[in-house]
Structure of Phospholipase:
Amino acid sequence: MTLHPLSGPSVPTASGNPARQLVVFLHGVGSDGDDLIALAPYFARWLPDAAFLAPHAPLPFDMAPVGRQWFSLQNLDSQAISEGVASAAPSLDRYLDEQLAAHGLTDGDLALVGFSQGTMMALHVALRRHTPCAAVVGYSGLLAAPERLPAEATARPPILLVHGEEDEVVPHDFLALAEKTLSVVGIPVDTLSCPGLGHSINDDGLMAGMQFVTQAFGLAFPPETP
């Protein structure tokens, strides 16, 4: 299998110090890394020593002339999604290994934040790495191939899943399915349902994600004042 090298925008630490944490944003289908990297300044308020990365997915979007995709969604069958996630996982795994090594960090210093298809990728990869990362935040996504997780899970990082109750792209019902599957295999999972929200991230979800990641890194949220 050919591993497609990943690249994309990055934001250095707000403090100017070497990175002590690494937050990787994984975008949805039809978008690219320039979209979610816009979240970096918000997270940096609480994580001044974190560096932020947002790789472009490896494939051009196959249903429009612009955008990227981790895998095709022309076939929405659960088996096709499972195979698509698995096919894209090696490229993301290699990218994470390379970036952690470049920053002199380990998986315990890493958080993955995904949206939609990026959530599918974050969950698949994080739960199959040799060492658990610090946290996974998944917005508006789903857990691909839940039936395979008990046999394949090698890491159990804490996970926060956030989903709009009016999501017209990835139905909100997938939240409960993911929560049940993750809990059964001993993976700590928190959830947040957002009333009235469609396929998007609102202020409540953003705040919950920032708090979850900050505390997973062992830091106070909001930071303690002298």
